[in-house]
Amino acid sequence: QVQLVESGGGLVQPGGSLRLSCVASGSIFSILAMNWYRQAAGKERELVATITSGGSARVVDSVKGRFTISTDNAKNTVYLQMNSLKPEDTAVYYCNVEEVMAPAGGYWGQGTQVTVSS
Predict the structure, then answer these.
(1) DSSP symbol at 99
(2) CB 23 within 8 A of CB 5
(3) Beta bridge mates, 95
(4) What pLDDT sits at residue 12?
(5) Which pLDDT does position 105 carry in this prediction?
């Protein structure tokens, strides 16, 4: 079993920045990819950013140029640097890890709230 613990969410004004962290621990064999999803109130969960074990990273168009995903493989940690935040970025952000022994869909964190408001 793998546990994911997220941190870094909070309340920020429009134009501000936050950095989310997600630490994976437990029975980790081989991580395939680490992802960040978000779910706004009344909306479906959506993929925001993904990074493979080989370091290939991409973000969705709505956050391109503002969000950056990165990892510290030695610490099994994935980060999401969020700059120039907008009110529409308000959501619960979830860490997701795809791992060779994981069930379908991978492992999920508990989520961290990000609120962008003046």
Answers:
(1) E
(2) yes
(3) 36
(4) 98
(5) 87
Q: CA 24, 25, 26, 31 torsion: positive or negative?
A: positive
Residue-wise DSSP of 52-75 = ETT--EEE-GGGTTTEEEEEEGGG
Give which of 66, 70, 37 is closest to 52, Cα–Cα.
70
**Contact, 9 vs 42, CB < 8 A?**
no
| Cβ count within 10 A of residue 110 | 11
**Residue 115 CA to its chain's centroid (Å):** 15
One digit per residue, the tens of pLDDT, for the chain of length 118 reads 889 999 999 999 999 999 999 999 988 888 899 999 999 999 999 999 999 999 999 999 999 999 999 999 888 999 999 999 999 999 999 999 998 888 888 999 999 999 999 9
What are the contacts of 45-52 at 24+ separation with CB within 8 A?
A: 45/94, 48/80, 48/93, 49/80, 51/78
Tokens encoding 17: 């920045």
CA pair distance 11, 18, nearest whole angstrom: 9
